[in-house]
Amino acid sequence: MRIRTLSLSISLGAMAFSALTACSGGASDPPGAGGEQGASEGAAVDEAALAPVVTDPATNAPGGAAPPTTGPSTAQPPSTVDIRAVDLANSAWLYSFGGFDLPVEVKLVNGEASSDGDGVPITYSLGDVVYGDVDGDGDDDAVARINRAQSMGSEGLWYLWLAEGPDTVQLKYPIAQTGRCSTYVESVVISDGGIALTEYQRIPGLDDAIPCSDPGTGLKKRTITVHSEGQDKWPVQTAPVAAWGGLCPGPRWNESSPGLVDLWAAPAKNSPVTATEAPDGGAMFEQKDAPLLQRDGWLLIGVKLSGMANEQGVTEMECAWALK
């Protein structure tokens, strides 16, 4: 019974409220709500007051155009340079005469440059360029030859150009030299993060009768890559043995010192090890002066390792770095 009474009371109350609103015409719109009555009774809307105030940045006063809005930056980090798009024929090169002097800058224009050496014209020209990954980082690099001619003499030096982020970097140490009455570079092949060089060297005495226009008989094959520590980069040889990958100046004297000290392929203790100290592991040769190869605390020496004869049965001299 109580439940029914409560339901009846609620129903009667709802009916009374409906009748009341029907007689009064319903609830009125609030002033300014958008109906005709509200629009006439409410305060007028100042649309100008609702517009955003724009301040002129130059005067800090209202007025002027709204400053442009910028979204979050979508700039991508710089990608690795395409070495094949680098114009080496119109670039500044480092060149070390003979492969051992301090480098000078040579600016090629359309593949050529010239200078005056003590009244004798010197010309430079771009030679062969080979592309591929020479340091194993997955990016293509370049090995290129620049030629130098003066009077009756000429030479060509092979240099590494590395793709380093958005830039290209030329290593100042040449890895091969070719010239008249000198070493002949037969081929340069890049694969598997290294450079395979095939050269013919002139053997003193044995090749003296061979014309200077022809290569010598000393076949040498070696593989070169790059060792990096911070900003320093050096060419290093990985085959047939770990050794210096640049040029060797040649022995100062014919005499050698028996035995070996600790030797590295570059002037850095983290570079590949050529040899460890051994009284009967081979022989060492003092090298000729080479300004390009001066390094504080280090000395480049020639070395012949026991048991490392080539295909002709000759133990070739390699170069490696020792602590002073």
Percent of residues in beta strands = 35-45%
Structural class: mainly beta
Number of strands: 21
Radius of gyration using CA atoms only: 41 Å
Largest sheet: 6 strands, antiparallel
Average residue pLDDT: 81
Parts with pLDDT < 50 across at least 5 consecutive residues: 1-69
Roughly how many Å apart are the termini?
114 Å
Q: Which series of helices and strands comes N to C?
A: HHHEEEEEEEEEEEEEEEEEEEEE
Overall geometry comes to: globular
Write the layout of secondary structure elements.
Layout: H1 2-24, H2 36-41, H3 47-50, E1 55-56, E2 61-62, E3 92-95, E4 104-107, E5 112-117, E6 120-132, E7 141-150, E8 153-164, E9 167-170, E10 176-179, E11 184-191, E12 194-201, E13 218-229, E14 232-239, E15 243-244, E16 257-260, E17 263-264, E18 273-275, E19 278-286, E20 298-305, E21 318-323
Antiparallel strand pairs: 1-2, 3-4, 5-6, 6-7, 7-8, 8-9, 8-10, 11-12, 12-13, 13-14, 14-15, 16-19, 17-18, 19-20, 20-21
Explain what you see.
The protein is mainly β and 324 residues long. It has a domain at 240-324. It is 10% helix and 40% strand. Strands 5, 6, 7, 8, 9 and 10 form a 6-stranded antiparallel beta sheet that branches. Strands 11-12-13-14-15 form a 5-stranded antiparallel beta sheet, with no helix packed on it. It is globular, with a radius of gyration of 41 Å. Mean pLDDT is 81; it is low at 1-69.
Can you give keywords for this protein?
324 residues, mainly beta, six-stranded antiparallel beta sheet, 3 helices, globular, disordered N terminus
